[in-house]
Amino acid sequence: LPLDETGFVTGMREYRFMNLSDLGEFGLIRSIQKATRRHHSPALIGIGDDAAALRFSASRTVLVTTDLLLENVHFDLTYTDYYSLGWKSAAVNLSDIAAMGGVPRFCLSALGIPSRIPAEDILDFYRGFEQLLRLHKTTLVGGDTCSSRAGLFISVTALGEASESRIITRAGARPGDAIFVTGAPGESAAGLELLQLRSAARGMRNRKTEKRNPEARLVERHLRPVPRVAEGILLARSGCASAMIDISDGLSSDLGHICEQSGVGAEVRADLIPVSKPLKEMEKRLSKPALQYLLSGGEDYELLFTVPRQRVKKLRSLALAATEIGTITKGSGMFVVDHNGRKQALLPQGYDHFPRRSL
Amino acid sequence: LPLDETGFVTGMREYRFMNLSDLGEFGLIRSIQKATRRHHSPALIGIGDDAAALRFSASRTVLVTTDLLLENVHFDLTYTDYYSLGWKSAAVNLSDIAAMGGVPRFCLSALGIPSRIPAEDILDFYRGFEQLLRLHKTTLVGGDTCSSRAGLFISVTALGEASESRIITRAGARPGDAIFVTGAPGESAAGLELLQLRSAARGMRNRKTEKRNPEARLVERHLRPVPRVAEGILLARSGCASAMIDISDGLSSDLGHICEQSGVGAEVRADLIPVSKPLKEMEKRLSKPALQYLLSGGEDYELLFTVPRQRVKKLRSLALAATEIGTITKGSGMFVVDHNGRKQALLPQGYDHFPRRSL
């Protein structure tokens, strides 16, 4: 990854080792403002007023999404470093803009911060946040910071733009459409399991020495997912995709959302889902067979999309790193054909925040 | 207040007395979606996809703001009912749009919900949220819900629109400008203190019988503030205001923000700040003199704005419920002239989430 943080880190150096109570709330806001300021901001009005003012070109529609990340629910500070946490908080929101085929433009961040966390860690969070935004030419334009008496609470809102006729919803899949997925799913969930197995908190600090390590690759995929922004834009511009979603809950769950909203079913072929080399290499250390991670592992932020048969040839001409894994069907059932050719029901097995109690 | 909730309550009746684990995460989203659906939604794509898609008219700029409300920091469930909490969560965000002179259009809500809270209470939250939005013709278009292992976390994002040339920032005040405030400040802080004094949680349940009660008026101002949306729009369209902010931290603090961002000072006359009848009547039961609530009481969501002298006459012709309370000065100091004609330094005394430690 092209991590060039020099200017950014310099701007924040003076706040090292301070506590939030040394900075004060408005000191913190000013330091965030200073550290994320750009020479040419595309915002009319950015951080520091009641609201940001953004100008989108006349013929474009505004896309907006918001996502929460809560300590001990979405992340665990014993194995997540703050830079990665900032990165991921931005990434999961940009991924939602990507999943509509939009171009991310602006972000707002709201943080509830326990007093135990030093200012330096919060600024490290914003370094990671800002780095991910820079990679995608997106600008932080506002937010909110307050003290939290419970854990660290993160809420991010992302705004993007798209041409109205090119927006790709979850509702456009039709029977016969091919199902595609970008990259290789399942790595993030495997990385999370490996992180949980580690006794000490090593985070990503030693990532350079770990580069060739398959475990480090899986862990990086969990801690610093890369939203498929370019792929989403390309799919929207080409007009190839009929429906799209990003894999946040897990392939089976997110395919379920497409099926439900499109009023269709799906059949997935297990042998077609790409298994990455690191996942294959680490399978023996994991608690479940690789297929479980492919089908139910969330937080990959790969794009799952459907393509009408007559557009599959055009899609292939785009040379997108995406793999055909199945077909949309009539009805509402989802099935998976396993490696032995047996057809089984595919149940959405992603994370439900309020799981139903079995009676 | 014109509370006509009939259709809305009916749509949610079936969820009464359920727990979130009976609904499930997606059940909860569907019930929110159902309860807040309108016949004619101005959103191209609303709740239920990766992002909402919004179309603003070509010549208008998008305003966006986000605010957090955390349990035991911003609110206390022992004296706040869920309907009021939803109302207020929407109100504080619309107030930020109003403070820019914008027209609120869309909202997103993100909730981290502890499992102890019944589904009915969350839906009550959304009833209050939706009611406030309806009063201001604003639409809920998306959000996020997840479980929280700590308290209830609320994050709301509001989007509005404005003509670029009519946006009123905090930075436009000039020496000589008159300082105005809408309505009567200080009531919300007094209401909060009275709520804290009450031993039992009565909330707003008996508000009809309490209508003539000055205590109930102050409590209502704290629990269900009304954002000055129409006033903000009128000020923007008239071109009268040079700077504007909403009073969330307290008059002295928020005037301080205008002074800092405009590079000016201010002189306020204590005898000009309107004291409401309920506040005057309840003063003997409060811990501090009324002036303290006027100057430092936050969460009124009144608008504080400055007007160049040559536009004061035009402002008065608007018949806005606003009072002139002082003058913008050169330099950076803020002063208050008390009832005895003594000039004292006016220190920002609003809430700082990370107060500086005294050394």
**Would you tell me the structural class of the helices and strands of chain A?**
alpha+beta
Please report the distance between the alpha carbons of the first and last residues of chain A. 48 Å
* Largest interface pair: A-B, 83 and 83 residues
Number of helices of chain A: 11
Summarize it.
2 copies of one chain form a homodimer. Chain A is built from 11 helices and 12 strands. The first copy, chain A, is of the alpha+beta class.
List the helices and strands and how they pair.
Two copies of one chain form a homodimer.
Chain A: H1 6-12, H2 20-35, E1 52-54, E2 60-70, H3 82-98, E3 103-113, H4 119-135, E4 139-147, E5 153-163, E6 178-182, H5 187-197, H6 214-223, H7 229-238, E7 243-246, H8 251-262, E8 265-269, H9 277-282, H10 290-296, E9 303-307, H11 312-317, E10 322-329, E11 334-337, E12 343-345
Parallel strand pairs in A: 3-4, 8-11
Antiparallel strand pairs in A: 2-5, 3-5, 6-9, 6-10, 7-9, 8-10, 11-12
Helix pairs in contact in A: 1-2, 2-4, 3-4, 3-7, 5-6
